[in-house]
Amino acid sequence: MIYLISICLQGSPDLKAAREVADYLGTVHHEFHFTVQDGIDAIEDVIYHIETYDVTTIRASTPMFLMSRKIKSLGVKMVMSGEGSDEIFGGYLYFHKAPNKDEFHQETCRKIKALHLYDCLRANKATSAWGLEARVPFLDKEFINVAMAIDPESKMINKDEGRIEKWVLRRAFDDENHPYLPKHILYRQKEQFSDGVGYSWIDGLKAHAAAHVTDKMMLNASNIFPHNTPTTKEAYYYRMIFERFFPQNSARLTVPGGASVACSTAKAVEWDATWKNNLDPSGRAALGVHLSAYDAETPFDNKPSKIVESIPLMMEIPGVAIHG
Q: What does the record give as the reaction this protein catalyses (predicted)?
């Protein structure tokens, strides 16, 4: 028996897509819902188990933590998870701004080498907190060797050619005669997990943090937290909880820091000057890329993804690697 399991807020971007995929594949779909308050109530437990104060990791770990509890209650012991594909194939929306294939490749290398601090940390600890085992097929060493040997030019986003993020991976499952997935699902714009569960999740976290962290506290943040000083009230809120559980200096030093837009490294922030004033790990911070990016006109609308219909059947992928 194959199960497709998802967790979302009601009306989330991922909810309709998950239902459609389950129906298309004929799998049993277990759909769990949580509220913003459910997530907020779990934040302290999440930080205790995940052992980080990194904003994007906590945002994504909370629904995964809640989902793991539900999965365990079903009697399921092992799940397959997709960690690593965005790092290997340049799947995050900020990769649209990569200036050339060398920069693109170097960024994928940086992301892969830091997985143990972010996505793998989340996947491992959010599941193991409930005795659930997560396996990550995209991080099989042989698969990584093959994927990283692909010419990064073939991975780059090219709007003129209709190539979006994770193009190579999507094309591998694009079979006109025996389709694996509906085309509009296969070519759906990337949604980071913490966005895809529902845009109101991140908005709710920010509002909750703003109610517990004052402007005066933020002005004094560099004195209270001289290492990796939080720059937002949300980051300050998580840091307070982390320091209560793990007050040792050795603990706070294990958590990475630095500027980030849409899960980028600090180096990739340099790709677009406009991002420097819009630092947030949400995919909606990728201005000019995300279909529902933060902006004055439609700040939180759930715009539908564009359907890609006119796609060439095959493309050649040269096997040239750039080693970083």
A: L-aspartate + L-glutamine + ATP + H2O = L-asparagine + L-glutamate + AMP + diphosphate + H(+)
CA distance 279 to 269: 9
CATH number at residue 136: 3.40.50.620
pTM for the complete prediction? 0.83
Identify the domain containing residue 69 by its residue range.
3-285
Rounded to an integer, what distance in angstroms lies between the CA atom of residue 68 and that of residue 73? Answer: 9
In 176-304, which residue ranges form alpha helices assigned H by DSSP?
A: 183-186, 193-196, 199-212, 215-219, 221-224, 233-245, 249-252
The C-alpha atoms of residue 309 and residue 299 are separated, in whole angstroms, by 28
Is 109 inside any structural domain? yes
Considering its fold, how many domains does the chain have in total?
Answer: 1
Residue recorded with tokens 């995964």: 64
CA dist 230 and 54 (Å) reads 10
Let me know: does 281 contact 263? Beta carbons within 8 Å. yes
Comparing C-alpha atoms, which of 197, 216, 250 is closest to residue 51? 250
Q: How deeply is 152 buried, as exposed, middle or buried, from its count of CB atoms within 10 A (0-12, 13-18, 19+)?
A: buried
Instruction: Give tens-digit pLDDT for 258-308.
Output: 888 768 888 888 888 777 776 666 555 555 565 554 443 333 333 333 333
Q: Are 186 and 173 in contact (CB under 8 A)?
A: yes
Residue 244: how many other CB atoms lie within 10 Å: 11
315 in a domain, yes or no? no
Give the tokens for residue 67. Answer: 């989902």
How far apart are alpha carbons 314 and 177 in whole angstroms?
Answer: 13
- Sign of torsion over alpha carbons 251, 256, 257, 263: negative
Q: How does pLDDT run across 183-236, given as a tens digit for each residue?
A: 999 998 877 665 556 668 888 999 999 999 999 999 999 999 999 999 999 999
Residue with tokens 């939180």: 300
Is 184 part of any domain? yes
Calculate the CA 21 to chain-centre distance: 20
CB 33 within 8 A of CB 201: no
Within 8 A by CB and 6+ apart from 124, the residues are 134
